[in-house]
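Hi F.,

I've been meaning to write this up properly since the lab meeting, where we talked about keeping a consistent format for the predictions we share between groups. The idea is simple: the sequence comes first, exactly as it goes in, then the structure tokens exactly as they come out, then a line or two of notes. No screenshots and no reformatting. I'm using this chain as the first example so we have something concrete to point to.
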Amino acid sequence: MPQFDQFSFLNQVAFFLFFFFNFYFFISYFLLPTISSNIKFRKKYINSKINEKTLLNLEIKNKQISYTNLFKDFSNYYETTLNQNILNYNIYKNEYLLKNSLINLVYVTKIKNLFNKKFILSKKYL
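Output, unedited:
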């Protein structure tokens, strides 16, 4: 900036103040509010996205917990039904074996009796 001239000193200072205050008001009333509103909007947007993410993470964790609980319940149910089926099978097998052993004993005794009778009959007629 050139040196202040004594004759145009007042004119130069007036133009400087005019442009400085115009620039100041332009920045303070137009530029800075738009920048600050943009920054506020971005903060709100980022916070909303963070909240959505945390909600989704909570939902995912809840679903994982519910699936693990469901799996545990299913495995417990499966284990109990399997144990019950094994127990029923063992009971049925024991009953079947006892029943068949009795039937076999009866059949064996009848067959022995039959053979004895045949033997006796065959001896009588020989």
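Notes:
The chain has a mean pLDDT of 83.
The chain is about 95% helix and 0% strand.

If this format works for you, I'll send the rest the same way.

G.
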